[in-house]
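HUMAN:
Just now I want nothing more than another pair of eyes on a protein record. I would be glad if you read both lines and explained how they fit together. I have put the entry right below:
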Amino acid sequence: MTAAAPRKKSLTPSAIRIGKRYRANRIDQNYDAVVIGSGIGGLTTAACLSKQGKKVLVLEQHYTAGGFTHSYARNGYEWDVGVHYIGDMGSPHTLGRKLFDYITQGELKWAPMDPTYDRFYLGDEHYDLVAGPEAFKAGLLKDFPNEAHAIDTYLGMLNKVAGAMQGYTLSKALPRLTLPVVSRLLKFTLPDYFNKPTYEVLSKLTRDDKLIAVLTGQWGDCGMPPKKSSFLIHALIAKHYLHGGYYPIGGASRMAETIIPVIQASGGDVLTYADVKEILIENKRAVGVRMADGHEIRAAQVISNAGVINTFEKLLPESARALCNYTTHRKHIRPSMSHLGMYIGLKGTAEELGLPKTNYWIYPDHRYDEAVDAFIEDTSRPFPVVYISFPSAKDPSYATRYPGRSAIEIVAPTTFEQFEPWKDTVWGKRGEDYDALKDALTEKMLEVLYKKFPQLRGKIDYYDTSTPLSTDFFCRYSRGEIYGLDHDPERFEQDWLRPSTDIKGLWLTGQDVLSCGVVGAMISGLMTAISIEGLRAVPLIKEIFVKPGKGDWVRTPAEPVSV
């Protein structure tokens, strides 16, 4: 290795375990609802129902709760596997912040990142996104002085999509019988560019492909480059971070840690090592789940946060899939891009090592789609994007919890086919060829890191690299996808992707219902709770949607940290 004898992955269990371990004799059969999966969508649904007085049980097959919001610790370091930054947390009156405060009783606290929250490298050139609409515009004008009209129009379009999303989102919770009328109404109210390909929309604003590349430099946040993604998801992401990025104080595991007490307050709980093998269907209705140990848990409502494909293809009996016309629906959805994750530990503080509170996105050049297509054809080519995040710099509590240490996270795309030969092997024992491939990819990612941060060469104390097979083992996404379904226009035309299903008592929640991202999955979790509760959800709707308040954006230092 190029680093100074770094320690490789240890199989020592993680020190971060959120939730109680499942035992059949710990189950109380008197539950109003069972949630499969403890990702943020499932936790949000469970917490919202619990605050409605429902007794909810959340079942998580992993050793810790949180799904892609969980953290893990090894060898004296800690990393977050999926939470790198969250937008819209600078004001207590945004939908995302109000929802977080609601389901955590205000216990989850936030630290702002640097005003420059994202930096894009297009080859040797770099461009910055700066927090706040005016600063955002000024930063772009510095690099593209002749594009003021295009940038103004673009910002206006983001606002229009955000406004239109309210009706689109709420339509998910309306009764299925209203779909024909709702669909016609949405066609009249949504902008005509709402669900067009991102590049197609932006190329009508400007002919400058580098400006388009900078505007779409966050495409890695949904896993689809701009010629394939829907403008809907692009606009949601760009608008979400327009006022900057924020990080949960104490790391991503604080999300589940602060939500679980709300679920427990109504008699519910979150259990880990709780492997659901089947959703029980009787008389065309979901009535509970069967666990891997054969134990059955009954409940009036079964809510799946396991992902649409897992729910219909792995958890439901084939006869039940026919009730939902799933075979036809399946033709219109695809799993999102597979990914690699690298977790690096270094001795020294973020300040000593020069680690920023800014995310780095490294691209070969501005031709994103072409780079992705070339890489899929030949994975020996340069990564089409490498994302680098610095959690120990973003989290003011990290230095207290792990004195004199720092952490870096790297994410890069890959293909499932590259790892398919080992798909039936056991985690941690996949063989020398698999380890050699991981080592080669690790070196490839490290060289990208060293090019931007040469001072880190020789400073790495520990590293661990995950592959699509690791993601499948820990999170049950069988092709190593982190964003669920592809976010192309076809996906957003599927009106069956909603909380209610054609099987009574079976509900969906999580990122496949609405969109990827922590807040997207949370809002889908809220919509699922509203769908289940119907008119009983009026107090919940008032609490989240109606309470008055202005977007008083602040970028003050993080609150004092007590550990």
Residues 90 and 554 are 5 Å apart (CA to CA).
